[in-house]
Amino acid sequence: MSVRELVVLGTASQVPTRHRNHNGYLLRWDGEGILFDPGEGTQRQMLRAGVAAHDIDRICVTHFHGDHSLGLAGVIQRINLDRVPHPVTAHYPRSGQRFFDRLRYATAYRETVELTEAPVDTDGELAATRAYRLDARKLSHPVESYGYRLTEPDGRRMLPDRLAAHGVKGPDIGRIQREGELNGVRLEDVSEVRRGQRFAFVMDTRLCDGVYTLAEGCDMLVIESTFLDEDEALAVEYGHLTAGQAARVARDAGVRHLVLTHFSQRYSAPDDFERQARAAGYDGELTVAHDLLTVPVPKRR
Length: 301
What we know:
- The protein is of the alpha/beta class.
- The protein contains ten helices and 18 strands.
- Strands 6-5-4-3-2-1-18 form a seven-stranded mixed beta sheet. A seven-stranded mixed beta sheet has the order 7-8-9-14-15-16-17.
- A hairpin with a 4-residue loop joins β7 (124-128) and β8.
- α3 (72-81) crosses α4.
- The radius of gyration is 21 Å and the shape is globular.
- It starts with a strand and ends in a 5-residue tail after the last strand.
- The relative contact order is 0.14.
């Protein structure tokens, strides 16, 4: 059975707190694991959350501020120490290549795993597998930053009433799915399009076109909400979003499940983020993330 869920490893911005580790998020998607923004302490958080190095197939770094990337050194070395049996691909802004190099080779270790570097320098598709297409969009932050989006290919949902009406049953159902037509009955006659699921990961950014493009129609949007609305001027100055801004993006984009994260250490009441998100008009499923939380991706419509 396929599993699609987000494992939250850390939710702090800039500095960790007593209750929040630096950023870190693992998306499980049909047997593949995508690790986003491993900040300092990610390797230990993985242990606490039951995430193994073997679970990581792809690493996506939005930008090279420490709370989003200092954990790379430990994660990469752990992947090699545990001799992960499959290749791992790393995406990150090409402008930060020197930082990636320093983190990848921060100390001496034995390389045992094929780690492919696939830096990002423009909007567009980064990879395509049978399970998803991975795209990147540039964001607005003091250093170059990209957000990521997974899109599952559309499929088809078989309709029992139409199958029965056309006399298609048993093994013939599989045949018409494979061949597209059977005895004059087309696949479109007995099925409908099943839209693929969509997931987006948006970290440090002001409001910009990239934010809206990434969020559009998502089943799950993981997005930073560093500040509360009363500190919007600080958010703009430092290149971040408020809870209300993130919620309005989700509302306007038709997001089904909004996950708020990346909270400034100046705030101690998580309920304030939920309150402001609801006040902004978002009425979908809402999670104010905390460390070591697992959040299922919503089931297909």
